Amino acid sequence: MTKTKLELTWIGKDKRPRLEPRILLEDSKKSYHATNKFSENDIFDNKVIKGDNLLALKALEREYTGKIKCVFIDPPYNTGSAFSYYDDGLEHSIWLGLMRDRLEILRNLLTDDGSLWITIDDNEAHYLKVLGDEVFGRSNFVANIVWQKFHSVKTNSKYGISQAHDHILVFKKSDAMSDFNLLSMDEDALKVYKNPDNDSRGRWRTAPLTVSLLGGARGAAYAKTGISTGIYEIISPTGKVHLPSKGRCWISKNGFEELLADNRIWWGKDGNAVPMKKVFLNESGGKKIASTFWDHHEAGSNKTANEEQKILNIAKESFPTPKPEKLMERILSLATNKGDLVLDSFAGSGTTGAVAHKMGRRWIMVELGEHCHTYIIPRLKKVIDGEDKGGVTESIGWQGGGGFRYYKLAPSLMKKDQWDNWVINPEYNQEMLVEAMCKLEGYTYMPSETEYWNHGKGSETDFIYVTTQTLTDQQLQAISEEVGEGRTLLIIASAWRSNNIDRFTNLTLKKIPNSIIKACEWGHDDYSLNVQNLPMSEPDIEDKPKAKKVKNTQEQSQVTGDLFGDQT
């Protein structure tokens, strides 16, 4: 029987933006660095990027592909709420399309052992899980963590059920990622360790001696033979016989006998209990494995985040949906180590950068809203100056230091003139034009100090030269000779005069702007989660029956594997 692959289908899924790879322009007046060096590990090359986050991700792609260890995003939840910072009420299909476009670039940016963490609520969580499976692969889904964002019950809740949690969907880039880091034990975790038998090795807790009988190679072998070496009798000191429970099997006999000989088996106070392994506190290093439920004591809550905002005392109007610093500290503790690079392309209130900075991680944040200036930058300045006394500052022992650079997206490289013709944007100077063309053609911008024609490289032997001049035959001859054998050069020029350019076998020539007009969408500055800014969004026509948006939904669902039902 042929297996049918089901895919998440939505209106406009086949419509993808042709993104312009913009350059980033630093505004040194908004960049900020500590006046004093606090330690040798101070980090200064962090980035705050102001602008549309999809264009910003595209701008980062060339330099940062395969370099981001952890991506955390807290996208608008598409709930229909009227937020002052976001238009968070997009039609379902458009929201999915926008998220797909972002996830694909984010996956490219991750290191092979990197991970993506997304906070979302019930409104889109399950669709986003399937979308993430498509982009990352189902086998790369790690976990759905339930975070307790509210710890009080709302009496006016819809249907009489008070929503208390958000989801945190976790995906890995590939199988190159090993286990996440362990978490430090809190007081509640330490209470589990006791010493009822006065073992000289100190306090311990119990752990099962059984594993799944049906999983992996063990399960495959059992399915074929109906026999397992893990199914055997264990006899307690009192003579009671124990067998593993249904669907489980013991660890190997040799493993059990080694534990028994080392007094690492606990039979209960009366010696009759199911045998358990003793796990000693002094061997755990004070660390524990994370679970998929994070309560507000462990990871903070919305109330915690609001209290942190009050301590910061930055703006009269508080940010509506901040994340607590304890939540971000927990994620970064699991997914990163000091010096790793963290990205948040929905920066919001700036919690990711603030906590990453305190924890000694490098970071990049992207934010479109004006609160990038009114909230995020003032918050980061307080962190750098050691004036942020809230959040995880005390528990980490943060005192200040480091800095960040502020960037904005450059305007579109092409714009239409008064006669409706595409021309190079006059806001671009020569340096900006060269960098933009390097990015557009897939070259690394690295102007040579000795070779005037060498503006960047695509490989060790392939280079690029960008000029607005009209090159003569003599100039092309001279450049070709300087490039020499074994190297190639792409020349982007306004024009050239030569009777036989084919003789320059190491040169490839392109004219600007003609050669790039169809390369991408020029002059499109806003791909934000705002329905009126989207090229795929078409206004409703009053005399067009809305039912025609999705024709025969049941039939479509059967044919395409549409998981949306009658959603339009």
UniProtKB/TrEMBL annotation:
PROSITE patterns associated with the record: N6_MTASE
Superkingdom of source: Bacteria
Gene3D superfamilies: Vaccinia Virus protein VP39
Key words of the record: Methyltransferase, S-adenosyl-L-methionine, Transferase
One MF annotation (Gene Ontology) recorded for this entry: N-methyltransferase activity
Claim: Metal-binding is one of the keywords in the record: no
Keyword S-adenosyl-L-methionine: yes
Domain DNA methylase N-4/N-6: 68-375
This enzyme's EC code(s): 2.1.1.72
Ranges for region Disordered: 534-568
Family per similarity comment: Belongs to the N(4)/N(6)-methyltransferase family.
Species assigned in the record: Acinetobacter nematophilus
Start-end of Polar residues biased regions: 553-568
InterPro entries found in the cross-reference section: DNA_methylase_N4/N6, DNA_methylase_N6_adenine_CS, N4/N6-MTase_EcoPI_Mod-like, SAM-dependent_MTases_sf
GO BP, sorted A to Z: methylation
Reaction(s) catalysed (UniProt annotation): a 2'-deoxyadenosine in DNA + S-adenosyl-L-methionine = an N(6)-methyl-2'-deoxyadenosine in DNA + S-adenosyl-L-homocysteine + H(+)
Annotated Pfam families: N6_N4_Mtase
Protein name: site-specific DNA-methyltransferase (adenine-specific)
